[in-house]
Amino acid sequence: MGSGGHDHPHESFGPPDVALLATRQGVRATWVSLGGLALTAVLQLAMVVVTGSVALLADTIHNFGDALTAVPLGIAFLLRSARGERLAGMFVVLAIAVSAGVALYETIQRLLHPEHLSHLGVLAAAGVAGFLGNELAARVRLRGGRRLQSPALIADGNHARVDGYVSLSVVASAACVWAGLQRADPLIGLAITLVILRVTWVSWRVVSAAPAQDR
Known about the structure:
The chain is mainly alpha-helical. The chain has a single domain (13-208), classed as Up-down Bundle (Alpha-lytic protease prodomain-like), CATH 1.20.1510. It is 81% helix and 0% strand. It contains seven helices and no strands. α2 packs antiparallel against α4 and α2 runs parallel beside α5. It starts with 15 loop residues before the first helix and ends in a 7-residue tail after the last helix.
């Protein structure tokens, strides 16, 4: 057994040295991804001013929101709390669901009120920047989540990867407008919405299966 009253049965990440390493790795993964996505969103915001694209504005707000999902995860890792991590994971799933709502709203708006897009090259570049930023965040979060066996971090990585697909829809919109296919834009938005909804369900299953209490 242990040495009297110095055991810590409620630590959720194992012995002190292992717990410290897991905390550092978890915090590093969340903050690196936050920094990358925040930089991506700032870049896109500058391009919104040039293009005037509502779709790009929505994607930019979306990426800012995705960057902020790293905050509760970082707190959970600092506290070394399985309960806190699970709650953070639920917050992430909620963020994915909101992403689906944003995508659906934009799709309906485009169907009801078609818009003429300008500066298509800049618009496409903004979509590529969004994809690269999200893909970087997804890889960092998924790698860290699998290494630490963190359902919340895995869910957040899936979220970032889906957001990359949303950003690619901005590129597809620019290509369709260039080809004269204005109505293809809302259809692409609808397909992306279905993908986001599927990831919402998968992420919810992962997080809901995680331990609800510290061990």
